[in-house]
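Letters spell out the chain; the tokens describe the backbone. To illustrate:

===
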Amino acid sequence: MRWHTRRPQKLLQLTAALGSLCILFLLIQLDEEDNHMYIFGYSELEYTADDGPEKGCNCTAIFKGDPGALDQAKLLTITRDFKNSIHLPDEYYINATQDCRSFKLSRKYIRFPLSKEEEEFPIAYSMVVHHKVQNFERLLRAIYAPQNIYCVHVDKKSQASVSTAIQAIVSCFPNVFLVSKAVSVTYAAWPCVQAELNCMADLYNSSTEWKYFINLCGQDFPLKTNFEMVKMLQGLRGGNSLESEALPSDKKWRINYVHQIVNGTIKNTGKVKDPPPFDLPIMSGSAYIVVSRGYIRSVLEDGKIQSLIEWFKDTYSPDENIWATIQRVPGVPGSRWPHRKHDMTDMNAFARLVKWDSHEGSQDSMNAVYPACQGHHMRNICVYGTGDLQWLIEQHHFFANKFDTDIDPIAVYCLEKYLRKKAIDAIT
């Protein structure tokens, strides 16, 4: 196993005193914030449900697609007692984080790099959220590593309890911070991009160490461990992984007309926009990206990109075009030339696995991209259910969207257990 790189004399003395104990089955952790040490068995970092409401489900059988286990999980999630016991209110987090050390221990956050490779390859995250604190905290816990850096943007319109609870959680971690300038986010409008840009700038200026940037929303959840993501990012060799395709004709109205926010909703003014500032086709893609530090540098500092950013500000749903277009600008680190042979779909990119209802279907369908959603749909997107897990973990994507612990907490719980066990098994 790997020992903490900054061991005080007392840790060396303790190591010697352990003598014949099998140290490979212990974790000795130095808390860098308060200089306290803790000794754990690896089992102390594993998620369990021995005393929790999820103990009635069998995650191992669920991942194998066992019909009985899936039915049992489905029945459990609709019982009143389960629903009442599973939800953690915002106040829980506000109170629990009064003692940060206890909060991190009880919630089983990983507080030291699990491998040298991970320590030397930090990742920067933006996390844009507006509600569902429990979703956010479980996402943070699943992706947290002390060598990474996290910028959290809370919508200025969020309820006070949401903002207070997230601020309390963030305050417990030296490498997690609230964005320096929050905005009021409007669906499908420019503030969605501005929130990301503000976090990008804060992350870029806060650390020179991180290698890649990944953006998240509060209802994402990982499908890979941090180590697996690091290995896949290393394989990109400085390239980026994001959806970038030709803009469909039925979406060209989004960029051909001027849009503006009216009473909290984006509206088409009917006024025709000027063409883009330079001769480059506007591409279609996803709001979710996996990009190099060099890509972020271009977004923040390149004059040509800045003019493109200005042009996008009055378009509809610019987050589904801007990153995809920048990815095809020659000279941007990790970019691809704009020729259609370099088009990248969301199914091939690492960034995000999203099930759109229009692409779902049976296995024998020639038109289906993926199997039918086993949860429910919101804005034409599958909110994953427990029955989706077997398919999800077979995919290469880093993250999947959407999950909702209020509707199907067992889907999140089983993924938590699966990923944590994978991470621990890799170091034992």
Summary: The radius of gyration is 22 Å.
